[in-house]
Amino acid sequence: SLCPGASIFLPLSWCLHPSPSVPGASILLPLRCIMALSEVHWDHQIPLPKLAPVRAKLTVALVALLCFINSYDGEFVFDDSEAIVNNKDLKPTTPLNNIWTNDFWGSNLSSNSSHKSYRPLTVLTFRLNYLLAGGLQPIGFHMLNIVLHAIISALMIDMFAILIGGLAYDEKDKIVNLAPKTSLLAALFFAAHPVHTESVAGIVGRADLLCALFFQLSFLTYCKAFNTGRGLFTTPNNHSPCTVILYSDVVRTGLLTRLALMALGGLAMLYARWRIMGTGPPAFTEVDNPASFAENIFLRIVNYNYYYSLNAWLLLCPWWLCFDWSMGCVPLIKAATDWRTAWLLLLWCVLIGLTSQALCSQDSQRRRTLTLGLVLLVVPFLPACNIFFRVGFVVAERVLYLSSAGYCLLLGHNVLKLVCVAVLLLLCVYVARCALRSHQWRTEQSLFTSALSVCPLNAKVHYNVGKNLADRGNTTAAIRYYREAVRLHPSYVHAMNNLGNILKERNELVEAEQLLSKAVSIQPDFAAAWMNLGIVQNSLQKFEEAELSYWNAIRFRKKYPDCYYNLGRLYADQNRHLDALNAWRNATVLKPDHSLAWNNMVILLDNTGNLGQAELIGREALKLLPSDHTIMFSLANVLGKLQKYKESEGFFLHALRINPNSASCHGNLAVLYHRWGKLELAKKHYELSLKLDPEAPGTRDNYNMLRRKLDQLQRSAP
């Protein structure tokens, strides 16, 4: 259908058109400006209704919401714990400037342990979620991700329309969609593609959502800029020869200027990014990306290409989805005779076939769509392909978020080769799979267990299932999964560390020591394993070995308050009181809210008769931790011994308001009243203490002593 007065401008498709007024001269004109304006010829055959632009966008947005809305009330899962829950950059007390110098996980970019993932705008949105919700409420985080995906999916209609049909404007300077049905279908496929679940249902996937959104806005804004010179292309023959030749020079100059500006801007951003991350790439291990550590360059290339075929398969058949594809999930190809090499050959055959069609097809519209679809499929994936630098994963579904737009464009273009019913069925399957997968992302338990059937050889999957079970108190089942993780990956030090901790709690100290010793022998700078080994050795009364382990932990992690706390406990067990106090003081310097260290200092000073110093330490601690009932309890005991009964009573009562079911607090308050001579109140709190804990040590004896005294007083009364 023709649109009177409209013109089309395709910025990268140029032709030389003979000038009618200047013999031998040519005019540089956009290729499509000399063609009749019409819809893409295959568009009317798409099995969808032709919707108005606003209605089409609403339809796509609603489909996107339908696919992922059941993840709105999910928990913080997997990487959310480190990027959000434990990230201090989200808290209002942290200076806002920190997000520009720290990585995505809250570590300083200059640190050797930094992952070098620099996403300050994403962290800024997390911080905004935190402020609006007044804390870590996952609903707000999830809802923003879902809304962003709906917006991106709706904007895909405009982007696909331009990529398929070019830039076209009507007489009101509005962009005309020359492929309304094809762009709608491709956008629907994008909105409902299950491979997006990690980016939408996983909160850390917001980085990929924002990347896609800013790409769309940049692309659409760049295209809109061409509208400024649109009228000059409408009737070129009306201009004088000099005007036309002059304009062609202007067009050349404008194009070169734009390309130069974009090139300079891109190089400046790359340079700034390189400087910010410390001019060095992040350090990854063989576990993260085993193919990149293969010594044979041929096998390395073969495995990389096999990874590409796996990504292509996830786009084609997004049924086997997993939160992590490392650690044995994808075994390495070690010989050219491996049957899996057939998949990478098939991938390249398909890519070569599509490329040949894009270059050699007689249909210019088909050439355009195939070319731009392949570009949109391949180019966003290049940073993840291990060509320019080593990446820290084998397969990551989140990196396919923008690349999937190219796949959806190609799928929408080739839909005529499919039966209409099959197209609608495929769309319904996508929606159902999205709903199921986003439901699995609601909790860590369902997310991790869903991966067992996809990647049963992935040690990290078994590790995460075990960790989730341990966090929920099921240590018996957790042990089984941790052991399987160690069996699949014998050098998995984190699994050894966690398994050793559980065995320590179950008093299986010998095996715990063996596991933790093996962990630190594999990774000597594993500070947490050194500390846990020290705890086990302390329990085995191997005091010298325990002290050495603690100091090794501190050597590899300078600021380690928990290790100083445990070192203090070791010194206290050996009656090295001054060393214990110094260790606990170091813990509180490094972590001022370390309640256990403060409390142990008060108790140790109390037990050694240093009541005045114990009082000072207790008051100092409560200035930092005004609601800590354990410190109140310890300080109240000290004040009672100093015969400051009224003040001691106040701290006991305050502690009981916070923790009313503390048998020891009721019992010690009763002792205070007993000494103070308030016998009825003493009787009341003795009885409350015995009601809460009938076996409370000493309380029964004190209560009986009080009753005898009350009986004597009653008998002696006139």
UniProtKB/TrEMBL annotation:
<dbReference type="Pfam" id="PF13432">
    <property type="entry name" value="TPR_16"/>
</dbReference>
<feature type="repeat" description="TPR">
    <location>
        <begin position="493"/>
        <end position="526"/>
    </location>
</feature>
<feature type="transmembrane region" description="Helical">
    <location>
        <begin position="341"/>
        <end position="360"/>
    </location>
</feature>
<feature type="domain" description="DUF1736">
    <location>
        <begin position="280"/>
        <end position="352"/>
    </location>
</feature>
<feature type="transmembrane region" description="Helical">
    <location>
        <begin position="415"/>
        <end position="436"/>
    </location>
</feature>
<feature type="repeat" description="TPR">
    <location>
        <begin position="629"/>
        <end position="662"/>
    </location>
</feature>
<dbReference type="InterPro" id="IPR052346">
    <property type="entry name" value="O-mannosyl-transferase_TMTC"/>
</dbReference>
<feature type="repeat" description="TPR">
    <location>
        <begin position="561"/>
        <end position="594"/>
    </location>
</feature>
<feature type="transmembrane region" description="Helical">
    <location>
        <begin position="255"/>
        <end position="272"/>
    </location>
</feature>
<keyword id="KW-0802">TPR repeat</keyword>
<feature type="repeat" description="TPR">
    <location>
        <begin position="663"/>
        <end position="696"/>
    </location>
</feature>
<feature type="transmembrane region" description="Helical">
    <location>
        <begin position="372"/>
        <end position="395"/>
    </location>
</feature>
<dbReference type="GO" id="GO:0016020">
    <property type="term" value="C:membrane"/>
</dbReference>
<comment type="pathway">
    <text>Protein modification; protein glycosylation.</text>
</comment>
<keyword id="KW-0812">Transmembrane</keyword>
<keyword id="KW-0256">Endoplasmic reticulum</keyword>
<protein>
    <recommendedName>
        <fullName>dolichyl-phosphate-mannose--protein mannosyltransferase</fullName>
        <ecNumber>2.4.1.109</ecNumber>
    </recommendedName>
</protein>
<dbReference type="InterPro" id="IPR019734">
    <property type="entry name" value="TPR_rpt"/>
</dbReference>
<dbReference type="GO" id="GO:0005783">
    <property type="term" value="C:endoplasmic reticulum"/>
</dbReference>
<comment type="similarity">
    <text>Belongs to the TMTC family.</text>
</comment>
<dbReference type="InterPro" id="IPR013618">
    <property type="entry name" value="TMTC_DUF1736"/>
</dbReference>
<dbReference type="Pfam" id="PF08409">
    <property type="entry name" value="TMTC_DUF1736"/>
</dbReference>
<keyword id="KW-1133">Transmembrane helix</keyword>
<feature type="transmembrane region" description="Helical">
    <location>
        <begin position="207"/>
        <end position="227"/>
    </location>
</feature>
<feature type="transmembrane region" description="Helical">
    <location>
        <begin position="175"/>
        <end position="195"/>
    </location>
</feature>
<feature type="repeat" description="TPR">
    <location>
        <begin position="459"/>
        <end position="492"/>
    </location>
</feature>
<keyword id="KW-0472">Membrane</keyword>
<dbReference type="Pfam" id="PF13431">
    <property type="entry name" value="TPR_17"/>
</dbReference>
<dbReference type="GO" id="GO:0004169">
    <property type="term" value="F:dolichyl-phosphate-mannose-protein mannosyltransferase activity"/>
</dbReference>
<dbReference type="GO" id="GO:0030968">
    <property type="term" value="P:endoplasmic reticulum unfolded protein response"/>
</dbReference>
<keyword id="KW-0677">Repeat</keyword>
<dbReference type="InterPro" id="IPR011990">
    <property type="entry name" value="TPR-like_helical_dom_sf"/>
</dbReference>
<keyword id="KW-0808">Transferase</keyword>
<feature type="transmembrane region" description="Helical">
    <location>
        <begin position="146"/>
        <end position="169"/>
    </location>
</feature>
